[in-house]
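ok so i was messing around last nite and threw this chain in just to see what happens. nothing serious, just curious
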Amino acid sequence: MRRVRYHQNGGPEVLRLEETDVPRPGPGELLLRTEAVGVTLPVVRKVRGGGLPLPASLGGEVAGEVVATGPGVTGFAVGDRVTGLCFADGYADHSLLNTAMASPVPDGVSATDAVALVRCGLVARGAYAAARPAAGESVLVTAAASGAGHLAVQLARALGAGRVVAAVSSAAAEAKAGFLRELGADHVVTYDNLAGEEAGRWGGPVDIVLDAVGGDLLSPAVAALAPGGRLVAYSSGGGTIEAYDLLVGAKSAIGFQMALIARHQPELMEQWRQELWELFAAGRLRPRVHAELPLEAAAQAHEIIESRVNLGKVVLRPA
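result:
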């Protein structure tokens, strides 16, 4: 089979397409014929310098057909179509998926829609839930045109937010503005206009910030909160928040990690997953795909993510 690995850290140019044997599923694992792979910013960052032993393979959000099952597998069978998070060799013709991370794909749903909806949708849904939103509260979403961000904008609207503000980088800001307004955002703002007098242009401070960026954006994101507001950080981008900035406005910062929910509250994750499919079936949640590229174009997919110009999900199609 073909897979993508990297033998040194760096940019997209270090990705290599290689030939290797098709793996065998171990206990509790499914072997998929991979139909779609979601490209994510955390994976792109790992290639730049994630501290993994080299050479390293790339994990990812995968969707495909089960072609073999490992010992002890129940609830899944050969021929099922599933999606989930694969931690190694996700950029490949075949991938191994632990059943704990697997989710059935409903009939009639494409692999591309499945891989664009489920994992990013679960992250967006979980981050919003972590803020403990009340009906009618205002929400600001950073990285709003990203794979998770564009779903967070729609979920906030569908779940009762009173005002939805989409925050984006300056890259392709005009195209992102139209894209996000179409998805339900009331206002679109660039990161350099998050706080201060500029906030009046997008309705003023918000009750909730869902932040997928981190780093230097954390301080202006906290400044964009109204008194008593909550920032939910679910980024791999690091960064720090000054305690005084929280204290002076009685604001809160909350960390969210999907892996902890999957490990300790699987029933909650399943509830969110079913909610995502119901909203999708009702047409209230529409995953958007910026580009579908062949596996050998993995470097191009990473370039799109790093340039911050994508409108929605970037997907690799191994087949």
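not much to say yet. The longest strand covers residues 29-39.
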